[in-house]
Write a structure and sequence with these properties.
heterodimer; A: alpha/beta; Rossmann fold; five-stranded parallel sheet; 5 strands; about 35% helix; about 20% strand; globular; B: alpha+beta; Beta-Lactamase; seven-stranded mixed sheet; five-stranded antiparallel sheet; 15 strands
Chain lengths: ~130, ~550
């Protein structure tokens, strides 16, 4: 199973993901890390079971977290259910709603391996086979 | 009607009554010193009727004129018009009219005087036509009329100027105009047109001369928006400064050549302004000769003062915006810092969770789990360093604009003024109770004015929110200390008020910072920054917040 993680500071969450992998998925998950949204220009989003997207406060890159979500959803609306937002911004929901992005799964940092596991499981269990 | 006009009208009324008294008195002398055609029983009721009719017609200038004329004719009927005393009696209304040089100027007065002379002339049995005497007498009337015309013109100019001043003054009162000084220009033009009874001016523009590296004429504003403009003659500024007014100076505005114009130069505190009137037609020679447009210089000068103070206000506002931007940058940095910390806390959250679960990990996974645990610990140590580094950077290197430790000497009077301003803003119906003995020497307290203002408005804002009906403020001083106390009642539940009192009294900053209510932390920090002693008391459901400042004296009596 492949999971995409869009996170420019992966090191700060790496062990939470790896511990989750060890404890709940018998190390069967391959994490594919994208340090920037541009690095995923040619990625096949449909091949990932879960897509973690970090939204930070700045929107320095042309494709910030929000645009990336919009891009993924525009390729296939069903992929919306596979997205989990990772953010340090506890007011993220308001920002998402203001951009017309409702009902997304959110993890507000700081986080731990159990929270990560739960969100992966909830996505995997709820998603319909494509 | 302006103030000037109103006072003038009152003066005119008094003058008018006095004049009638003079007429009656003079008539008595003439009747007593001459042979009269009518008996005394005609003259006595005449006096009475004349005065009553005058009172009835007091508001009608033409009616009064007819009444005066009839009275003069009856008194002089059958007497010599050449007699100098009699003649003066006839021309008394003309002499008096110099005092009434308002807007209305009546040629009728002169016509009536001539008719009166004619009637008296024919009523006098010994009248002979003596051109020599008539010429002498009538030349007097001509001279009087010239004086009359001139004082009328003077009053007209004065009134015109007053009206223009009023237009400019209205600027400060009218909310609509306060940020749009150019709106005055249209009214200004209207008043000029009304006064000269000539539709002369098209537009009015204001320029200022900026003495930067090269002198530049900069448009400030005008009756219409200006995109481009050019004064074609290079020496026009030198000529304008010398002559103060220039006619028909070559100038283009928005690519249109303005051939007919008038330029007026104004200098206020070495700030130079140029007002440009674009004209529909040439200024009549008559107005040019008497320098009529010089009369609009003082109102324009006042206009320039407004523009100058606008500019200064704008500069102050700009400074404030810069300060505000500095503060908002600081707040944003602090905000970002919090998000940074949230992000960097993930390794600790995970570490803690792993440690908590360590005992329940199945045997087959425990070795891998421990390996990850140690790696997570190493990562956490790195993140800890990152967090500490950023926190130090925030606390030490960046300049905190909310810092009120810079104190200066502020007079007790100024301190009161700052307090009063805020207090009246929040509680316009309440008065501060002052107990201070006036002193000849200046007495100061050490304050940071901005900090003091923030403290007062923070506290009063809270009082306004939580009070029931009582608010009181005392401002008292003895020889060494200034005390400011705020008393108020409240509708808060007991536990809230206990908490508030505790927080205000507590020295544990960490305890207070946990709560966010009442802005107590900010109030305390500001007062601590300024080194001001404070205390809070609670008695009979009244909260008293009291601050105490040390008074220092200095010999300088400039308060």
């Amino acid at each position: 199973m492949e999971i995409a993680i869009f996170e420019n500071e992966y090191e700060s969450v790496r062990f939470a993901f790896e511990t989750a992998n060890l404890m709940y998925f018998d190390n069967k998950i391959d994490f594919v890390i994208f340090p920037s949204s541009q690095s995923a220009n040619h990625a096949d989003f449909g091949s990932f079971k879960v897509i973690f997207i970090d939204i930070d406060l700045s929107s320095k890159s042309h494709h910030d977290g929000y645009s990336l979500i919009e891009k993924i959803v525009s390729t296939d609306i069903n992929l919306k259910n596979r997205i989990v937002i990772l953010t340090g911004n506890n007011k993220i929901n308001e920002s998402l709603i203001s951009r017309g992005l409702n009902n997304l799964k959110i993890i507000i940092k700081p986080t731990d391996y159990e929270e990560i596991s739960k969100s992966i499981l909830s996505v995997v269990n709820s998603s319909r086979p494509l | 009607m302006g103030k000037y006009n109103f006072i003038d009208i009152i003066q005119q009324k008094v003058n008018s009554i006095l004049f009638r008294m003079v007429l009656l008195f003079y008539a008595t002398i003439i009747i007593a010193g001459n042979e009269n055609i009518f008996s005394l029983w005609v003259y006595v009721p005449l006096f009475f009727v004349y005065f009553v009719v005058y009172l009835i017609l007091i508001g009608f200038s033409y009616g009064r004129l007819v009444n005066d004329s009839v009275f003069i004719v009856v008194v002089l009927f059958g007497k010599s018009p050449y007699d100098i005393y009699n003649f003066i009696f006839i021309i008394l209304p003309i002499i008096n009219s110099i005092n009434f040089s308002g807007k209305k100027k009546s040629i009728l007065l002169y016509v009536f005087t001539l008719i009166e002379f004619a009637i008296v002339y024919y009523s006098y049995s010994h009248s002979t036509l003596e051109f020599n005497r008539i010429l002498k007498l009538f030349s007097l009337i001509v001279f009087l009329s010239i004086i009359n015309w001139y004082s009328h013109l003077r009053a007209k100019v004065k009134m015109f100027r007053e009206e223009l001043f009023e237009v400019v003054d209205r600027f400060y009162l009218d909310k609509e105009q306060i940020k749009k000084p150019y709106k005055i220009y249209k009214k200004f033009i209207e008043v000029i047109h009304e006064n000269i009874k000539n539709d002369l001016i098209q537009d009015l523009y204001c320029f200022s001369i900026r003495a930067t590296s090269s002198e530049r004429v900069i448009i400030i504003n005008g009756t219409s928006f200006v995109w481009t403009y050019q004064f074609t003659q290079k020496d026009f500024l030198a000529r304008l400064r010398e002559k103060k007014t220039l006619f028909n100076e070559p100038v283009t505005i928005d690519d249109t050549q303005i051939n007919k114009n008038l330029l007026i130069y104004i200098n206020i505190d070495s700030n130079e302004y140029v007002f440009l009137f674009s004209l529909k037609k040439d200024i009549p020679i008559y107005y040019q000769l008497i320098g009529f447009f010089r009369t609009i210089e003082p109102p324009l000068s006042k206009m320039a003062q407004i523009l100058l103070s606008e500019r200064k206000l704008f500069e102050i506002k700009q400074d404030e915006i810069e300060k505000l931007s500095e503060k908002s940058q600081y707040v944003n940095r602090a905000n970002n810092m919090m998000h940074f910390i949230r992000n960097r806390l993930s390794p600790f959250a995970n570490l803690s969770k792993m440690l908590g679960n360590l005992s329940s990990i199945p045997d087959d996974k425990v070795d891998d789990f421990k390996k990850l645990l140690f790696e997570q610990n190493t990562r956490s140590q790195i993140e800890l360093k990152n967090i500490i580094f950023r926190a130090d950077d925030m606390l030490e290197k960046s300049k905190n604009p909310f810092f009120y430790k810079t104190l200066k000497d502020v007079s007790i009077e100024k301190t009161f003024t700052i307090l009063k301003r805020s207090f009246s803003f929040y509680f316009p119906d309440e008065e501060i109770i002052v107990d201070i003995k006036p002193q000849s020497i200046r007495r100061n307290v050490k304050l940071n004015e901005e900090g003091f203002e923030i403290f007062i408005s923070d506290w009063l804002n809270n009082v306004k929110k939580y009070k029931k009906s009582i608010i009181k403020c005392n401002f008292t001083a003895n020889e060494h200390k200034l005390y400011i106390s705020f008393f108020n009642d409240h509708f808060l539940p007991k536990e809230d008020i206990d908490q508030l009192l505790n927080d205000l009294k507590s020295n544990d900053r960490n305890e207070i910072i946990k709560r966010t209510t009442h802005g107590v932390f900010i109030i305390k920090s500001i007062l601590d920054d300024m080194n001001i002693t404070y205390d809070v008391l609670y008695e009979n459901e009244l909260i008293e917040f009291k601050i105490e400042l040390n008074i220092s004296e200095n010999g300088n009596s400039n308060i």
